[in-house]
Every structure is written in C-alpha cells, then in structure tokens.
Amino acid sequence: MAILLSDGGTLKPTTEKQTAGGYGRIEIGKPLAVEMRTFFPGRIRREWGNKAELMVTTQTRVGPSNETAPRIINMLIKGYDFRSAEPIRSYGGHIYGDGMLYYTKSYTGATLRTTVRGVELNKIGGASFDALTDTLKSLGKLAHFTEFVPYLSAAGLATRVVQSLLRVLLRNDRLAIASQDLYFDSTDDHILQAGRYVLWPDGTGPSEDEMMQDFHLAGRGGTKANLLVDSKNRVYKGSPYFVLRIEGKKKSGYEQFAIGAGSAALLEKWADRKLGQSVFGAVQDLARQVNDAKQLSAIGELMDELRSARKKSVRAKLVTRIKAHHALVSKDNNDVLARLLQPVVRS
Predict the structure, then answer these.
(1) Would 277 be classed as within a structural domain?
(2) Fewest 10 Å CB contacts: which of 45, 70, 259, 283?
C-alpha cells in the first residue's frame, strides 16, 4: 500500500522524521487524533451510470491485538458525479458523516493500524438513502460504528434498507482501499508523527517515486487545500486516494470515542441483536468497565517494570506511560486509582 507524508506540501517517505508544522507533537500521555481530510473516488464509471451513492468506512486497531477493529461509517455521499470527479473534502449540510477515524485523550505509545475503504451503495438510493442518513444522525456518534447497523430497524429504519447496507458492508468490491501501520518513535518502520498523509492503493496510480517527483499536497487554506496538485498547480484526477491528518491536539466532543469503539466491539461479540436500541446504555457501561480493566492491566505491568527500574530516566518514562493509561480510566474508577497511584507519580 502506498503512503507518503507531506512536509510543507512536499511529499516524502513516512520513514523520515518531519517537523510537526503546526499539527502538534505526538507524545505519550497527550491527545492524538486521526482524521480524513480528502477522499477522491476516481473517475470509475460502473454499469449503473455516471452517478452513485458512496460510503467511506475506516478501521483503526491500536496496539498488539489480533482482533479486528470496529468499523466506522465516516461518510455517505448521495449522487456522486463521476464525470466531474471532484475530490471530497468537506461534509457540509448535505453529506452524512464525521472525519474522525480515531481519537484518544491520552496516547499510550501503541502502534496504529488503519484501513480506509471507499465503496459504492448503488442498491440504496432516493428516499431509502435519505431515511438511512436521517436515522444515523438521530442516533448520534454510536451510529458511526457499523456494529450498530443491525439495530437500525429498532430505531425506525426499514428492514430492507438495513439488509441492503449490511450486504454492502460484507461485499469485497470497492472503489479504493488503503491500509497502513504507523509506529511511535521508530527508526525502521513507517513513523507515527503529526502531519498529513497521502494513501492510495498499490497499482492504481503513480508509484511513490513518481508521486514525490510530480505532485505535492496543497497547503491549508485556499481552494485547493488538501488536494494533490502537479507542478502547474493542476488538481490530480487520476486514481483514488485519501488524505489523512494526524494531530497531537485535543478535540472537543470526542472524549467518549474510545467508549463508543469499545461498545461496538462488545456488540459484535456478545449482544443479542433482537434487543435493539435498549442495549445501547448497558453495552456502553460494560465497555467502560472493559476499558478500565485494560488500562489497569497495562498499569500493573508498568508498575512491575517501575519497581525494578534503577535509572532515573527509565523511571521517568515509565511514570509518563502510567499517567497516560491512568488518564484513560473512566471517572467512576479514576478517583480511587488516583489515590493509589499518588506515591508512584510523584516518585
């Protein structure tokens, strides 16, 4: 999978360290946000004509887990025109979605493994598409996770629309798919750092060398912000691509992102889908407890390392990581844990 990092617009390998450029720094214990800034579907024309409904979904798995991450519906686009083939950069009032792929208020240093997909929704159109977006909007941020899709009938959406959406999510055909692992503080791999990334499927467009030589990413502001342009500032309209922005900054309104992801994962595994909307609250509560258990487990392991550490610099790093996990514990358990950890964080 092809991926490059923008350094002031110039495209460079992601194995090289770049300056943050106003995007904040990626640090343990600090916020981390991954957002989609651009999706270009390409000029593909299928048998249904020159227009189609599109969907962008993403998955971000964090850390050493072999389980698939919850999938998010980040965008639903009605009647995309393949003839003009305009890159999609904003949601406005007419597009359902949210560009946030992943957010944590306290990054713990784990590897981020991200997949973005653009697929077509040619079987859902007209009034059914409008009903789908209206229902998703009414359910709030929980609806972004596709594990909640089976419950949409209970929320008032026609069963046939839900079934159509589920079929689309299970299909393998797509307009574009790109995946990448990003590693914190690494020298041999793709580095997780603040900035803008360009991702595109292998074999669908220029090679990485060609992309670095012939194109750059337009800067913030202006009519071509976050678009690939050539040396004459002409917008690239070849193969599909995505632009992601990674920032080490706090994002208001996303504090419960991890709880939503945990709830979605629990629904996928254990929930009785016949219960519909009534399970949301209970699953969220359970997700909080599972989240807390994970953080406490990580803190326990770090505490063991701290007890045996002798160097002051090593102890300082371990305390920073303990604080990062502590910040992710829910409020119900946070106060008790804070009192227990007081002697540690002051050491």
Answers:
(1) no
(2) 45
Q: What is the pLDDT of residue 121?
A: 76
CA dist 329 and 292 (Å) reads 5
Instruction: Kindly state whether residue 233 falls inside one of the protein's structural domains.
Output: yes
> What is the identity of the amino acid at 150?
P
pLDDT in tens, 290-330: 677 777 878 888 888 888 888 888 888 888 888 888 888 87
Which tokens sit at 64? 């050493």
Q: How far is CA 229 from CA 10, 214, 233, in A?
A: 11, 9, 5
Determine which helix (DSSP H) or strand (DSSP E) holds 35, and give its type and residue range: strand 32-40
Domain of 322, in residue numbers: 286-345
- What lies within 8 Å, CB to CB, of 59 at 6+ separation is 68, 69, 70, 71, 72, 114, 115
Secondary structure element (H or E) that encloses residue 264, with its range: helix 257-270
| C-alpha–C-alpha distance, residues 11 and 6, integer Å | 5
Please provide the size of the chain in residues. Answer: 347
Residues 150 and 204 in one domain: yes
How far apart are the C-alpha atoms of 338 and 331, rounded to whole Å?
Answer: 10
Q: Is residue 148 scored above 80 in pLDDT? A: no
Q: Do 314 and 238 belong to one domain?
A: no
Whole-angstrom CA distances from 106 to 21, 28, 124, 192, 202 are 21, 7, 39, 15, 33
